[in-house]
Amino acid sequence: MEPDHDEARPSASPDVDESLLWYTALHHLIDEVVFIHREDRSIAFVSPSVESVLGYSIDEFTRLSTPELIHPEDLPEAVETAVRLRGEPGLSYRSTLRVRRADGRWIWVEIVGQNLLEDPEVRGVIQTLRDVSERRALEQRLLEQAHHDALTRLANRRSFIESLEEVLGSDATSAVGVVYLDLDHFKPVNDRLGHAAGDEVLRVVAARIRSAARARDLPARLGGDEFVVLAHGIADEPTARAAGTRLHDAVTGPVEVARGAVVEVGASVGVAFTRAPCSADELIARADAALYEAKRGRGRVVVDSG
């Protein structure tokens, strides 16, 4: 006969304080901080892991005010969340924000909380905090890779088109132009000096374009030796030509590559601007057509005639 399940289950020793067991277990939760806020917003409890995760002693952490702990940029949303949380018994939330460690460094943390103010065994808002700085950094790297060219760190084609579509689709009808650049005689650089030298030329050209672009402008690499700039404030042909000439002159000039070899960089430029409502594809196509005309003579700046 098999033993009854209730009889087979081991029972806790009557001498063991369950609250002590729970507190002891928290010593081993080194990755998360557990803390409880009372109704008056004082901290009634914090787990010992606060020292390993945030660097504070339990006493130091319980004396901290919210503005001292949370990054100023994240504070308004955190306060709003806390007000909403305390207004709804049983409500749970999850948020990601920056908090200050005891050594002064800001780290990204994920906080999960629940309003248990009406629970007689808790009488507080219970929260867990976990350091997610590494995860956040990985997410930022992946986002960077998705929107930037790996070689030059300029915006990539996808990011450029998305930004142009957003500008053209916005309610504000701001005048913008597309400055399209293509390097002259670039293929022989790769053939004669190798792709490493070609990559160095592209990196230097990208840096020159970035320096010549204004703060609101968006420079991008579309691929190969083709670059483009989303230029704001281009409302007529003279400003379009001035923008194209500025970028042409910035790019043109010698670039020293590996082994002391020097490459003379030249570029052809086509510019188009918003003469009338149009799509991103249409504006890029017009700039490309102007570039094609500029390439017929090399080293020229041609503005789309509309």
Please, could you describe this protein's structure?
The chain is α+β, with helices and mostly antiparallel strands and 306 residues long. It contains 12 helices and 11 strands. The chain has helices at residues 5-8, 18-26, 50-54, 58-62, 66-69, 75-86, 133-147, 157-169, 187-193, 195-212, 237-251, 280-295; strands spanning 32-37, 43-46, 92-100, 106-116, 124-131, 176-184, 218-223, 226-232, 253-256, 262-273, 301-303. The strands form 2 sheets. Strands 6, 7, 8, 9, 10 and 11 form a 6-stranded mixed β-sheet that branches. Strands 2-1-5-4-3 form a 5-stranded antiparallel β-sheet, with helices on both faces. Helix 9 (187-193) packs across helix 10 (195-212) and helix 10 (195-212) crosses helix 11. The termini are far apart.
* Percentage of β-strand residues: 25-35%
Task: Please count the helical segments.
Answer: 12
What would the principal axes of the Cα set say about the shape?
elongated
Alpha-beta classification: alpha+beta
DSSP helix fraction: 40-55%
| Unreliable stretches | 1-14
Strand tally: 11
Mean pLDDT over the residues: 86
Distance between the termini: 94 Å
Q: Can you summarize the main beta sheet? A: 6 strands, mixed
SSE string: HHEEHHHHEEEHHEHHEEHEEHE
Key terms for this structure?
elongated, 306 residues, alpha+beta, 26% strand, 11 strands, 5-stranded antiparallel beta sheet
Short description:
With 306 residues, this protein is an alpha+beta fold. It has twelve helices and eleven strands.
Write the layout of secondary structure elements.
Blueprint: H1 5-8, H2 18-26, E1 32-37, E2 43-46, H3 50-54, H4 58-62, H5 66-69, H6 75-86, E3 92-100, E4 106-116, E5 124-131, H7 133-147, H8 157-169, E6 176-184, H9 187-193, H10 195-212, E7 218-223, E8 226-232, H11 237-251, E9 253-256, E10 262-273, H12 280-295, E11 301-303
Parallel strand pairs: 10-11
Antiparallel strand pairs: 1-2, 1-5, 3-4, 4-5, 6-8, 6-10, 7-8, 9-10
Helix pairs in contact: 9-10, 10-11
